[in-house]
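Support request from a user on the community tier.

User writes: "When I paste my structure tokens into the form, the page sometimes reloads and wipes my input. The last time it worked, I copied everything first. Here is what I submitted, just in case something in the input itself triggers the reload:"
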């Protein structure tokens, strides 16, 4: 591998890193609200808990948080599809 190939790879890595950071910022700005059995959970798509309110029964809270996590993962996967599609990674 020549010097130019190495420089191109560094440029590609920087571009990928910048794209990943942009996706992370977008995920942090997306709020997901789940209402489940009297419990409301607000979480960002980067899986940061914003608030929990309503019936504080531990089982109901656990179920609501798990549902919010599931939804945040779906949103994150959709956001990442765009990033991976632009990288030319086979199988993505």
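"...and here is what came back when it finally went through:"
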């Amino acid at each position: 591998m020549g010097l130019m190939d190495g420089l191109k790879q560094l440029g590609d890595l920087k571009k990928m890193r910048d794209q990943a950071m942009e996706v992370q910022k977008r995920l942090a700005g997306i709020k997901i609200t789940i209402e489940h059995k009297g419990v409301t959970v607000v979480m960002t798509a980067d899986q940061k808990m914003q608030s929990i309110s309503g019936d504080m029964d531990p089982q109901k809270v656990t179920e609501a948080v798990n549902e919010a996590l599931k939804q945040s993962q779906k949103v994150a996967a959709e956001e990442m599809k765009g990033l991976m599609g632009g990288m030319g990674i086979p199988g993505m």
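Agent notes: The reload is a front-end session timeout and is unrelated to the input. Confidence is low (pLDDT under 50) at residues 88-92. The helical segments are 3-29, 58-85. Escalated to web team.
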